[in-house]
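Researcher: I'm preparing a figure for a lab meeting and need a structural model of a single chain. I don't have an experimental structure, so a prediction will have to do for now. The sequence is pasted below. Please return the structure as tokens so I can convert it later.
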Amino acid sequence: MAINTVDDVAMLALPPGLDPDLLRSFVLIAEGASVTRAAQRVGRTQSAVSMQMRRLEEMLGHALLVRGAKGFSLTPQGAWLLERARPWLSMHDEILANFRNPEVTGRVRLGTPDDYVLLWLPDILARFAESHPAAELEVVCAPSTELLERLERGELDLSIYSAGNELRGSGPGLPLWRGPLHWVGSAAHAVHRQTPLRLSLAQPSCIWRRAATEALDSAGLPWRVTYSSSAQMGTYAVVLAGLAITVGLSAPLPPGLRVLDEADGLPRLPEFEIALAQRADTPAAVALGRHIIDSFRHEPGGLPNRAC
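Model: Understood. Here is the structure written out token by token.
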């Protein structure tokens, strides 16, 4: 072949493009440690998916997966690729969906506890609005138990909520994220040294409240709830004033608060899950649910997507 221009030289120097199907199979194997499950998800035979992985490794010149007693694990090169393949596939799918699917219109009603709003929602809502500018979004903040009740009554289309041990792996929704609860106290006061321990918590049905009081009871520490609030910011305000301690996520915390732990004389708190429950199957609700699931998959502590 004759090489006549600089562009011809550049084209010859470019490596072959990565096939999204190869990357998708790789990600599914890496997340589930199983070629069989990955093959079921992509609708191919196990041998076809195994061949895809050989092609991908040959193309990149590195081993990506290692078979062990408990399935496949990642090599260092495989871990590097997985971290970058997830957002790349997400963008790839979003581009195709934007041009292939009809414009998403209509109103979608999303419920969420207020403590998740600043932590996770800005990115989710920004991406949803950019992809579906004709859709109208309504966000309702309330405690998880109230959100699930409103969802059941048809007042919400989908809701993010806190799931306790009794809902983990079952419940009405899809697990999105798992992480520990933490005691939160004032950085300027030692309220956690007082007896009985004064608590600022949500309503009695809140799973965080139950986790806190059960942990204190198991440790034999006396306590009393002196302040109640249906919103996390309300409990934080009381803690900032040096009047009580509360429970919450480790970060980001408002200035003036700090995480308390066993070194402060407090018992370890259990892990909990954040889940997504969806009632409506309108195009807008389905699209928003997809954005939420995808965003949490890329978070530290995010759970593999078992919904699609």
